[in-house]
Amino acid sequence: MNRLRNHIEEITPVSDEEFEYIQRFFIKKRVRKHQYLIEVGDKVTFEYWIANGIFRTFYIDEGGREHILQFGLENSWLSDYNAFFHQTASQMNLVCMEEAEVLCLTLSAREKMASELSKMEYFFRRKVTNDYTAQQHRIISLLSQNPRQRYEEFGSQFPEIIKKIPKKYIAEYLGISREMLSRLNAPDRRRSLS
Amino acid sequence: MNRLRNHIEEITPVSDEEFEYIQRFFIKKRVRKHQYLIEVGDKVTFEYWIANGIFRTFYIDEGGREHILQFGLENSWLSDYNAFFHQTASQMNLVCMEEAEVLCLTLSAREKMASELSKMEYFFRRKVTNDYTAQQHRIISLLSQNPRQRYEEFGSQFPEIIKKIPKKYIAEYLGISREMLSRLNAPDRRRSLS
Questions:
Q1: Which of A121, A133, A175 sits opposite B125 (nearest CB)?
Q2: Average pLDDT in the A86-95 region?
Q3: Chain A CB contacts of B67 below 8 Å
Q4: Domains of chain B, start order
Q5: Any idea where the Cyclic nucleotide-binding domain is (chains A, B) (predicted)?
Q6: Which residues of B touch A114 (CB under 8 A)?
Q7: Residue A54 in contact with residue A164, Cβ under 8 Å?
Q8: Among A125, A153, A186, B180, which residue carries the largest CB count within 10 Å?
Q9: B101 vs chain A: nearest CA distance in angstroms?
């Protein structure tokens, strides 16, 4: 729980009493590799704060192809947010890629905490605002950058993810084919062989 | 200002006294067609609430091509949010497409209002959360849908925008070429001629 406190305090300081109050809203959960926290069609009960481990949130199109909305490493918050906030059936899958510990938060717990403790209202506003501006950047990248530019930018923004996650999934996140990603990686392979 | 109150009250009711307090933070401005509210490189002083009129926020890539992040019709909030929140130079342009009236809000006014009136903290959290989930949908659309699917979904989601905005800009929003958009429109032209 201390890591959650550090994470919250990146946005706003909280007293010992306040954190005591906050942590009561969360439910701890261990998650195995390949375990699904959300499957398409589920009612989405929780959002999840990742204490450690790796997750991906993905959409499967009509042709059965997977498209990755989000990777979640430690300190990420994940859910199918449209379904979570509107309490509708999920259109996404959320699956564990590396054994993990998460903290689970229901919508009613989240709203109660935000209404009773103004610092948490502030925290959630700031957090989603940061996520919103990061998403704007991703939209501009998808609209304006070619596959090589997208891949190189991803590598410089998220060097840890590049190391930890199979290339197949990076391709599904960047909206490029696996063949294209292999071609983009080819010069690096040649260098390492020479 | 009454329209701003209606807009806020879609998320939370406010009393006459509270709205009296809120409206003092906004500065009214009339905007001419083709007038820029933000240009690349500007310090971004304001976010804008659109009382009426049409705007677009766009990015120009290294090759000089325009990519549209957002259209703004009445009740939209627009800015280069990354630059606004981090008080850095804008990477976007925000331009008026149809004569407009806007209300301007500085970052310090926004933060003061949110900290002094918890209903506005709640309003801004809920608003950006809605915008965040809408953006997630757009990312999935850009990753998974072909140009025809994107165009048809846009038409059913935003029938007003399709009517009011030249096709060139719709193409720049959907990440498809103008030639492709013309081909997608071709069957409609044939039908109207027959």
A1: A121
A2: 96
A3: 140, 143-144
A4: 2-109 (2.60.120.10)
A5: 29-113
A6: 122, 125
A7: yes
A8: A125
A9: 25
What pLDDT is recorded for position B181? 87
Beta bridge partners of A58: A68, A93
pLDDT at B156: 92
The answer to whether A59 faces chain B, any CB pair under 8 Å, is yes
* Residue keyed to tokens 């930018």: A153
Beta strand extents in chain B (DSSP E only):
27-31, 36-38, 46-60, 66-72, 77-78, 93-106
Please tell me the distance in Å from A125's CA to the nearest CA on chain B: 4
pLDDT of residue A155: 92
Radius of gyration of chain B (CA): 18
When mean pLDDT is compared across A51-55, A86-90, B157-161, the lowest value belongs to B157-161
A160 neighbors B159 (Cβ within 8 angstroms): no
Choose among B171, B172, B21: nearest CA to B109.
B21
- B143 part of contact set with chain A, CB < 8 Å: yes
Q: Which of A135, A137, A172 minimises the CB distance to B132?
A: A135
Distance CA B112, CA B109 (A): 5
Put simply, the answer to whether B69 touches A124 (Cβ < 8 Å) is no
From A78, A112, A124, select the one nearest B128 (Cα to Cα): A124
